[in-house]
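Problem 12. The chain below contains 110 residues. Write out its predicted structure in token notation.
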Amino acid sequence: MRVISLNLNGIRSASSKGLLPWVEALQADCMGVQELKAQAQDLSPELSVLDGMNGYFHFAQKKGYSGVGLYTRHTPTKVITGLGLPEFDDEGRYVEVRHDTPERRLSIIS
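Solution.
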């Protein structure tokens, strides 16, 4: 499994500077991104899915500020955004994708 992390300093800016071909060349299974500096309505369909990886995001409330995302080729069983702490959640600092369930973990052990 190939996992990468990238500080975008603005997802739209990064896309204008070659983000899409770069991501395609890496062939990652999962990619974490920081500093989206965008809102949900700002993301084009091309930025919502990169190289076949669906994106899941936690946007900052303040426009043009912060925000994180995870892209993954695998459908998560659960997506969690936020920590439940307004000082961090307002800034879009946390997104988690889960790819298992308690039942699946138990069946692997059995």
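Discussion. The helical segments are 11-16, 19-26, 45-48, 86-89, 102-109. Students who got a different answer should revisit the alignment rule from Section 12.3.
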